[in-house]
Queue: 2 jobs
Job 1
Amino acid sequence: MSWLFVILAGLFEVVGVIGIAQINKKSSFLNAVIMIGGFMISFFFLSLAMKDMAMGTAYAVWTGIGTVGSAVVGILFFKESKSLLRIFFILLVLSAVVGLKLID
């Protein structure tokens, strides 16, 4: 279950980052709720994951999912760069997360 919890934590971190991006476009109560709610749920699931998972692994996977997810959302929805070099480094982060899962 800890892997499911850390994946959910990473996905909700992306929701929180989307809230930040939306607040930068237009400050509103809804965008603040998305940001705060995303991060609160993210921390909740991260704390559950860390009950059975090593802290270093949980944190690395959580931040990796958040990093890759935010970068992909930025490319798909916020017109951020799609350069091959950027995609290459996103794949490197993703491969590190997969590697941590394989050795845990």
Note: The mean pLDDT is 96.
Job 2
Amino acid sequence: MEPDPRIAAVAIGRNEGARLRRCLASLQGRAGRIVYVDSGSTDGSPEAAAAAGAQVVRLDLARPFTAARARNEGFAALMQAGAPPAYVQFVDGDCELQPGWLAAAAAFLDGHPDVAAVCGRRRERHPGQSVYNRLIDREWDTPPGEALACGGDVLMRGAAFRAAGGFDPGLIAGEEPELCVRLRAAGWRIWRLDAEMTLHDAAITRFGQWWRRTRRAGYAYAEGAAMHGAAPERHRVAHTRRALIWGLALPLAVLALAVPAPWLALLLALAWPVQVARLARRRGDLAEAVFLTLGKIPEALGVLDYHRTRLSGRRRGLIEYK
């Protein structure tokens, strides 16, 4: 298989082990250039990437790690190494690219010069390993067609990425939708193909991992709303509002009324099972409905975490779940 010289790839990771080796193997023979950006691995990932033929970039340990920063530095390495690539496949180190994806995605960009980014179906490698992995697999299953945003696995037009200034390196999460807001504001479109793109290995087997990941999402909602919440975009405003209503206002109201008005408190508390039933009927999955409803609590905590960090003037570190 001859690699497409127009396509370069940027993979990012830390201590991904065998997952990273699968990721790089899936890029070999398909991307003309491969850059691996390492965020302080101690498991020999940089050496494994170099052995696989990738250019290795080690992030400076003195500066905070973010996926956004890693991707930007990977793109910068591509720019320094030669002519700017027409297309760049960004991929997380715990993902494996599916055969045929790059060819299909590049052909779509070839035929749609107003599209800046194209993504496809990301699936969990082990959806049956835990309820959390299964729910994440459902989370990735979004409808094809024009979209508001992409995820971390995406084929981007190099010129569009460069003109937009890349990802915001200060964001600890939600950097992909935030970049897409700027791309769309510049007149570009984002597209999701009905095609297999990557296998992802979330490896979430414990409730605490799910809780931290969901809390991180709430943090990203609040930060996204703070950055682009004004009309007409209203970016992440509805997500933030739902988290605060279901995960903070309702629990506080139930607790406040528990002694002076217990029947009213009970009536309010019934809103949760009613919401679970409504979501289960709409989505056809009771477990998903339960976790979507329960997840509003860690999301609300993430929203509060963002505003507390913002008011204190401190910088929030990564919220990791692996």
Note: The longest strand covers residues 189-200.
